[in-house]
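### Sample
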Amino acid sequence: MARRRLSSEEEALWSALARTVRPIRPSPRALPVTPTTAPLPIEPPVKTRLTSPPARTLKTPPVAPPARTPAAVLDTGWERRIRSGNVTPDTSIDLHGHTLSSAHARLNQAIAAALSRDARVLLVVTGKPPKSAESEGKGRRGAIRGEIGHWLETSPYADRIASVRVAHPRHGGDGALYLILRRKK
């Protein structure tokens, strides 16, 4: 099947979207960026004689470094324990039956409580997608499961989350997640 070319409007929309996306794994090659507007010509500075002192410029406050995001890879010991089901959650939270806003609030409370108790593994039960969506092949996820990744990335505790993994079937499988929390420094 031959691919069609994007129209100029579609190319502009795609490049705008592509600038807002952070890759999961940085690729070794850089993607070409097409400029949306022509560069402005640079004019040479005009030499003038100053009769008054130059105006003071306000210093901009330093920009805070971005928060750390969950790590993509755990060490092999963790990976082996998760795969074999030998991870025992220190605490768990079940978000079934909650609205998106209440589930988000409960998730943040559970992470805060787990961190205060120095827990390493938090089991978050989100629920599996409806059976009708699985059988029809739509791949539709539940609303909470669809939002939880965004919630964790923007959480005030994002720098304390080492990794997020799908739970072993004995802990809920596709309907649950392990949050591996970083140790205190």
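The two ends are 55 Å apart (CA to CA). This sample (DNA mismatch repair protein MutS) is used throughout the tutorial notebook.
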